[in-house]
């Protein structure tokens, strides 16, 4: 079958869903071309089928393909930014990494090497699927590409700064303690967002604080709202090279049932998408969306949420790549909006390019 794609500015975009039904054919993220169908990519989407680091329900090894399937309904124009991300930059799907499920050390090495290979020619990386163990090798690669420690925003119900499980150092509950120990994070500029749920003890927070993490709890997002959350985060991170790691369990189980370690009382998908939109102009160098476990999903709720989160992250990368902001933070709704159009946090204008 011929692939009828949208093309603009020399970028090969998604299969045109007005000419080929969106439910037809093999799934790539957002129906974008495969990496082998383009000369170069500005952003590479890659799946990480790995879940050998989980402490509870398995299944995140199937996450990437679930997100790809759920991403068929994404459309090419993002009105919340007034941006068509796939026109601005070339985004392509590199398929899945081939990872050893029986040897975590080997898996981590492979993920790090693949991440370095995929970014060697200057592409940014957005990874889908996998359990949170994979953030460590992805951060190593991102820090190497950035030439030093990087800022990080970690959306998660959990801290993931625990020490070991059953004596194992590399698990989905420990990546960020390892990352701090390895000196790959800029500890002046790291924060969790959406934290909640029972811990093992107060020491968990004492350790986490010592490592340098700030925390915006799920309750903080509720009480202070999206705007203040974004403002505080922007103040802490500034223009540093930033990695965003999204554990889909940051969302309430009502918004993301398909995950391995669900915790009640999470943020909504609307809040998460709006917080990311508030990061316009920030220096995003890489991102992941992890812990999607399709066997526990219903009606693709989690897959759809994850596919939209990834879409906002790609839009941020694409918006930054534009030569000068055309929109100064506006949305596509502006001309006809009966709502509150100007709702941008302090610090937003300063970081938005002229
Ligand atoms: N990274 C995720 N999703 N979960 C970590 C939970 C660690 C624990 O079971 O205590
Ligand atoms: Zn996590
Ligand atoms: Zn989590």
From TrEMBL:
Coiled-coil features, chain-numbered ranges: none
Highest taxon in the source lineage: Bacteria
Family annotation (InterPro entries): Agmatinase-rel, Ureohydrolase, Ureohydrolase_dom_sf, Ureohydrolase_Mn_BS
Xref: PROSITE patterns: ARGINASE_1, ARGINASE_2
One Pfam family of this chain: Arginase
Keywords: Hydrolase, Metal-binding
Similarity section: Belongs to the arginase family. Agmatinase subfamily.
Name of the protein in its database record: Agmatinase
């Amino acid at each position: 079958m011929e692939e009828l794609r949208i093309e603009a500015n020399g970028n090969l975009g998604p299969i045109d869903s007005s000419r080929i039904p969106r439910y037809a054919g093999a799934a790539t993220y957002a129906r974008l071309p495969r990496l082998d169908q383009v000369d170069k990519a500005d952003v590479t989407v890659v799946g990480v089928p790995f879940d050998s680091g989980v402490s509870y329900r398995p299944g995140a090894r199937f996450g990437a393909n679930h997100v790809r399937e759920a991403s068929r309904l994404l459309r090419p124009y993002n009105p919340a930014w007034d941006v068509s991300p796939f026109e601005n930059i070339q985004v392509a799907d590199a398929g899945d990494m081939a990872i050893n499920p029986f040897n975590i050390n080997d898996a981590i090495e492979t993920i790090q090497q693949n991440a370095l290979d995929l970014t060697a020619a200057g592409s940014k990386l957005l990874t889908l699927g996998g359990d949170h163990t994979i953030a460590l090798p992805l951060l190593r690669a991102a820090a190497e590409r950035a030439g030093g420690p990087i800022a990080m925003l970690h959306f998660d119900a959990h801290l993931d700064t625990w020490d070991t499980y059953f004596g194992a150092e590399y698990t989905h509950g420990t990546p960020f303690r390892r990352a701090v120990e390895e000196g790959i994070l800029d500890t002046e500029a790291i924060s969790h967002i959406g934290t909640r749920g029972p811990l093992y003890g107060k020491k968990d927070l004492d350790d986490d604080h010592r490592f340098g993490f700030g925390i915006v709890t799920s309750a903080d997002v509720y009480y202070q709202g999206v705007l203040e959350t974004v403002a505080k985060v922007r103040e802490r991170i500034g223009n540093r090279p930033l990695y965003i790691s999204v554990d889909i369990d940051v969302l309430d189980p009502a918004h993301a049932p398909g995950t391995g370690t669900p915790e009640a009382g999470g943020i909504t998908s609307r809040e998460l998408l709006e917080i990311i939109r508030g990061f316009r102009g920030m220096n995003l160098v890489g991102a992941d969306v992890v812990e999607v476990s399709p066997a526990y999903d219903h009606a693709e709720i989690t897959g759809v949420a994850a596919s939209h989160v990834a879409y906002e992250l790609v839009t941020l990368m694409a918006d930054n790549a534009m030569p000068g902001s055309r929109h100064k933070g506006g949305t596509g709704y502006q001309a006809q909006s009966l709502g509150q159009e100007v709702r941008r946090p302090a610090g937003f204008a300063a970081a938005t390019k002229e």
